[in-house]
Write a structure and sequence with these properties.
Two copies of one chain form a homodimer. Chain A is α/β, with parallel strands linked by helices. Helix content of chain A is 41%, strand content 13%. The radius of gyration of chain A is 22 Å and the shape is globular. At the A-B interface, helix 1, helix 2, helix 3, strand 2 and helix 5 of A face helix 1, helix 2, helix 3, strand 2 and helix 5 of B.
Chain lengths: 198, 198
């Protein structure tokens, strides 16, 4: 891109290195930024570096946060005896959007995957077991319904069972609004197995 | 987004304010940034603010650049007697990608639009006329082939005609209503080769 001066090229390259941003989008974003008021560009720039520098794991649930405890772990109105185990912070956010879950979370930051060489010690599992020393009534396993997610769910449930704490797994089945015709066989089988009496 | 701590929310909001980035993409980008090595986040952050702070108009052709003169105006191998007039820097970049045009440019930063109240004095037209005091053999008008682009082309050609300098318009190989930025190199080349004198 030698027809752009070096700082414009640099900006485009940095933007194009982000996931899902191709060279055309990077160019469009770069020109948008070059035409922003300086304060707005400053805002974007500092949001990036401040977030990256200050964000760390919540010391309780290991979600990403910029304080010692995340807003959910700090919230006295949540049910701290019910822990939902998720693979990453985005999964936590997905459940929070339902506005119906009032328990707390535990973020594993990954799932067990023998194929990728990710074992139980590579995710925040020890940390989950430590939390179970306290007053916990139920652990809801909400890892993805992929091979890795299922493996992780099985592993965790076997680990927790002996403690006597209730362990559950979110149901898998046909998504709400889903058309049976377009749903894969595995999902249809799961939906059948998990059928509930009406 | 109160389930994210404030700096994560801030980063997502800043990203979501960019064109073409919705809340889902902003979330994905934010987590990507949070997981970057600090130096990389620093690089992105400073590319944004440095580019925004230092980029200005080339004092000759008015393209965006971070130096007094842009790389093209500084280049002694280019034909400085041939000036291609474009609406903005992205259009210049589009022609540069063809690798066949060896003249220089003049960036208007807009087009005449009576509807939007943009007149000849609102674009870099005076600056173009000043450049014609020097040794110029041809002015190629490569404004978009939209109503505003055509209006601007007509206006400029009428202004230049009396000076005796050759004025041409890129051919209508460019689809009517098309935006130069998104047109493939071959079409752009055809349009250049088939330019007609106005």
């Amino acid at each position: 891109m030698e027809y752009y001066s070096s700082q414009i090229s640099k900006l485009m390259e940095e933007l194009a290195s982000l996931p899902g941003i191709g060279s055309k989008s990077a160019q469009r974003l770069a020109f948008h930024i070059l035409n922003m008021p300086v304060e707005q560009a400053q805002g974007l720039s500092s949001a990036i570096i401040e977030a990256r520098k200050n964000v760390r794991y919540c010391s309780m649930c290991y979600t990403l946060t910029d304080e010692e405890l995340c807003p959910i772990c700090r919230n006295g109105y949540r049910n701290h005896k019910m822990i939902m185990v998720v693979e990453d912070t985005r999964d936590l956010a997905a459940y929070e959007k339902t506005n119906k879950y009032d328990g707390v979370y535990h973020v594993l930051h990954g799932a067990i995957s023998p194929m990728l060489g990710i074992g139980p010690n590579d995710i925040k599992l020890k940390e989950l077991m430590q939390r179970l020393q306290g007053e916990v009534e139920e652990v809801i396993i909400a890892t993805n319904s992929s091979l890795e997610g299922e493996t992780t769910a099985m592993y965790i449930s076997k680990l927790i069972k002996p403690t006597g704490i209730k362990v559950s797994r979110i149901a898998s089945g046909v998504p709400v609004g889903g058309d049976l015709e377009y749903i894969d066989e595995m999902t249809l089988l799961r939906a059948l197995e998990g059928r509930t009496e009406l």
